[in-house]
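Attaching the record inline, Q. Sequence:
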Amino acid sequence: MPESHPRPLEAGITTDLRERLSYAGYLRLDLLLAAQQPRSPAGGSDEMLFIVQHQVAELWMKLAIAELHATITCLREGRAEPALKGLARVKLVQRQLIEQWAVLETLTPSEYALIRPHLGPSSGFQSLQYRMIEFLFGNKDEAMLKVFAHAPEQHAALAALHAAPSLYDEVLGFLAAQGHAVPAERLARDPREPHRPCAALVPVLARVYADPATHWSAYHLCESLVDLEVNHQLWRFRHLKTVERIIGTQPGTGGSSGVGFLKQALDIGFFPELFAVRTALVPPVVPA
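Structure, as predicted:
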């Protein structure tokens, strides 16, 4: 058997980091790793899991929001390729958010029972960044603003998104600028309102889908939005099932009905015409 020897450090590796930027310094690990402050005396590593899970999700959502803002800027400037790159990154972030539910699912009801009394009324429902993503996707609900009335900066950030065009608004504006006949009333709508299905959009999208080679950028953008919605719905579903397997049908800590409340979200979509166009394009089955 070959003998095991320590690997010598290469001569060029920096080992003297006094008064120099280090890995820990660049990442501000002093702040990041001090942010886990368990409250339950018996929670142990289970509460650490609960905290880390949600903190990591917030970091991924921060990146997704930055990418969505950059994507919107690109669309306004008529630059489809960097917009598509941004959406591709958001989709990969969504996959991370979906898969990390598997880690939280290792928390059993008895383990969570030791943590829950120490959570007070705090709840994922109160996540500003999650609500920002929903608003960016077009699911705008003015009633949600009052959840952040206690925090003026958060309230202002969400109110700004509530008043701004959504990602779907920007994609449709891009399509119109490319010569597609997006209805004028759809382009001029009040962005503070949630998007409502617009039957006049379906034939516009059908034209794009019927000839992808000619309308590749528009087609790719539309399909990317479909990917975003499917991923978000998968995230919602995994959230629901994780809650169900840990607390059953108990109410949520923030006062919601729990699983019942989460089930309602599964009926809320963002881009209904991008699904309706499938019905318009695929011919019905004709009995033999």
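The chain has a mean pLDDT of 93. The two ends are 70 Å apart (CA to CA).

More tomorrow.
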